[in-house]
């Protein structure tokens, strides 16, 4: 009878994270105008959006890093006793997304946006990240590999075996963007928002299959 030629393997999934100071800030700015008529709402929203974009450009942000989207005009409805649902006015809105490549200038850019748009501006949020993720992601992948290799080596020893060649490697997609480790700080004296960049992190996950040797 021929000997057993089946190959024993071990499969382990490892995860890793790498951090670095972010060099890119993405800010989402909402413009929302409530006016008595469609025309005035639309016109004023356009004026506010242009003012916001102009203020951003004055801080050295390139046109390619400014994007306007989500233009919408809708009626604002209210319920009135005896009359039912009535149109009280109209709301025009849009979103300006800006990428700030000098994180140190973020506070000044945000302050300029708020000043330019006034009460018609909404700060929807910000995300700190990397203009080029490859270096940080490479370190995260290396950490994930080391995590998988350490676990595989331990399991092999427990099975009275040793690790052989790698049979396959599969990387698992994680979050689409960096996880920010940052905070906003309000300066009471100037009523401005200060951005502390801190660090942003990227994670990687990999499943590795090793052959087991006796």
Helix and strand topology:
Blueprint: E1 9-20, E2 24-35, H1 38-57, E3 66-80, E4 84-100, H2 106-117, E5 121-129, H3 134-158, E6 162-172, E7 179-187, E8 192-213
Antiparallel strand pairs: 1-8, 2-4, 2-5, 3-4, 6-8, 7-8
Helix pairs in contact: 1-2
Description of the molecule:
It is a single chain. The chain has 214 residues and is of the alpha+beta class. It has 2 domains: 9-21 and 133-213, Translation Initiation Factor IF3 (2-Layer Sandwich), CATH 3.30.110; 24-129, 2-Layer Sandwich (Alpha-Beta Plaits), CATH 3.30.70. The protein contains 3 helices and 8 strands, in the order E-E-H-E-E-H-E-H-E-E-E. The chain is elongated, with a radius of gyration of 27 Å. The two termini are 21 Å apart.
